[in-house]
């Protein structure tokens, strides 16, 4: 089954199968040593740049700011959810997300 | 590879979308196939319809483009009646009520909670009264802005209104310019005050004199008034740019040719593979102003371009931080001997009943015409001297004042999380609370009667935060370990002869500490300024660390009821605000 993934409205949303599923303005904890010097990045999600898949996983590259140190930039690929049986499930917002290159 | 948006636009865009929009309206929101919704919502923007954020599925923001902010006699009443009848949704705003109109920083009007099924009736009423939503959003010519009192302003160098009207007539609904790589914002200003804010637009025409004639022996020369051309300004995405001077002067009768040439240049050369790099400001970065001019000359116009003329930028005062006419509030003389009266509309939002009341007053005291400024305010024009006092005594003007507190007068705010997908924080109601608290608790030095505070919910910068005395931009932080809405604080931005963007000196201030921060900042300004020094000059004289120390966030008796993540609500002011309590789409009612 094909899953339609899109960044919409100037980066405000990740749309999965034409449903607005993941939004900006959340705080995400990232294990992303390359983003800033913090042990865990505490990222304000300001803008989605790209969305992609890794197996059943859906991931995105995100522009944002670490509120612990103030570093800004675009992340590597951040897991945002999974598609199972045609249904998208967003990752728990409190989870620590390991960021790929 | 072209983006999804480009693919959708290549399949259907522009004028042709209208028929399909009306079919969906007739058949109901649910008739839009699930797998086509993203595409159709993108296309609807060209017709001024923007799907509201999640939790508000099936409701739309409708933007009405009013060129140069001009509402001809009767048109404000039309807007008020439409707002009253159609802009009512399941959520009630605790400050503004159930039906209201928003006046925007680009002299347009936004209505919320519009249902798709009502769109044909609204369009019919708008068009019967000479109004339109065409190209109010989307990738094409947006609402053309300028000095709102063009044609009437006593300080005018040239009447820009006929030029703006011609551009609007030529490029609205024009299939050759309907599908651009990104939005295309044009400003045409004829006054010497800079109130068209050309510097922050994709394309700006600014008044300038050019000496012509003198080609042969004995020929006399004369100074002709026309426009200098600048390209590539804009504020969005942490990439603010001032429009670049391309060394072109154009007489009024050639503006349409040059504007069309530059629009076509953008259409053909803008980046359609990366929407974040698509605005013409990035093309100007890449090419430089000289190459823009050369390409325009060689490929897009069939006459010899003149070099730039003598501008009047040294007289620019609008949003300049000091001098006369920082805005257009108050009573000002028109060149026909009557007056225009600028009224402060706090954060640009006016209840439908007040809109209708103002339409009555405009007819009673003026010509019925009303105009909108880029500071979200309204201007009643054509008021004779002998009617001014009585007009100023009208009770409505107690609220929409021609002589407001500087904190009311200087407040600008975008839509925010109430309706907008991109915003990180609540804005309009918060800026109202800020302004009221500052008015009650903070004293500016006696000689300072304007102090601009712009609150934008995100880096899209719809409230133009980078050109304010105090710039506030939506952020998040943690307070006592909990995530809360926060604001970055920038200082010292403004336009004028030498425009400058604000310097972001203090980051991530919890929203409940922002009024205290501004109070401390004003206190330091009052104590440490040189005599008569403007706030903008004061900021320019200090480094970022010194300014950060002046900001000094502090809790006060200001209380902010929207500290939580307002994006996780279906509507932040609802009693039961969780997404689970979101209303069903209107078609399901």
Automatic annotation (TrEMBL), chain A:
Pfam families: DUF8134
Residue span(s) of domain DUF8134: 1-98
InterPro entries cross-referenced by the UniProt entry: DUF8134 (IPR058447)
Top-level division of the source organism's lineage: Archaea
Name assigned to this protein: DUF8134 domain-containing protein
Species of provenance: Halorubrum yunnanense
TrEMBL record, chain B:
Enzyme class: oxidoreductase
Record-linked InterPro entries: NIR_SIR_4Fe-4S, NiRdtase/SiRdtase_haem-b_fer, Nit/Sulf_reduc_fer-like_dom_sf, NO2/SO3_Rdtase_4Fe4S_dom, NO2/SO3_Rdtase_4Fe4S_sf, NO2/SO3_Rdtase_FeS/sirohaem_BS
Alphabetized GO MF terms: 4 iron, 4 sulfur cluster binding; metal ion binding; sulfite reductase (ferredoxin) activity
Domain spans labelled Nitrite/Sulfite reductase ferredoxin-like: 52-89, 96-128, 332-395
Keywords: 4Fe-4S, Heme, Iron, Iron-sulfur, Metal-binding, Oxidoreductase
Residue ranges constituting the Nitrite/sulphite reductase 4Fe-4S domain according to the UniProt record: 137-300, 408-532
Enzyme Commission designation: 1.8.7.1
Family in the record: Belongs to the nitrite and sulfite reductase 4Fe-4S domain family.
Name this polypeptide is given: Nitrite/sulfite reductase
